[in-house]
Amino acid sequence: MSSDSLAMFRKSLGPDLAQLAEEHLQHDLTQSDRDALTRAASTVSTHTTIGSALGLTLGLALAYRLRAARIATFAHFRAHRAVDQPIAVRFANGREEAIPDLTPLLRPSSIGDIATYAFLGIGGLFLGGETGLVTGSFQARRGVLNGDRESRDRIQGAFRRFQADALRKQADALDRGADGMGM
Known about the structure:
Layout: H1 15-28, H2 31-79, E1 88-90, E2 96-98, H3 103-106, H4 110-145, H5 149-176
Antiparallel strand pairs: 1-2
């Protein structure tokens, strides 16, 4: 599992594309356009970090609740153990088989607790981070696209030119038979 699996740790598509994007930022946009894009990136980063933290917290809280419910269920099971419970099964042919005591197998264990906290914590981190990434992207897009029309047109034009250059570079790499873009 790479660090790109979690939204909080994603950086870019690779050094070649980062350099290409930086060239387009410097040549195609004004300083106010670059500032707007920087604010948008900061918004996405903030939403992703907050979403990841909230997801992790909620995952761990759910793990705690689940563990408490397992312990309470086991305590209830042990309390009612003294009540008449069958200890053997008698078959029609007269044969009798003992019923094993499953109590030690149902007891909550440290390994189960660790697995619960780990899986629910990681799941919450993933879900919260991805949700933060989506909400941050929508918020950033709204902030960039609701600016003045000239700025929006410059940003969209620069992005289209960047996409065209990135696709050309990828096509050249495919023609050479190399995967030099990291895609």
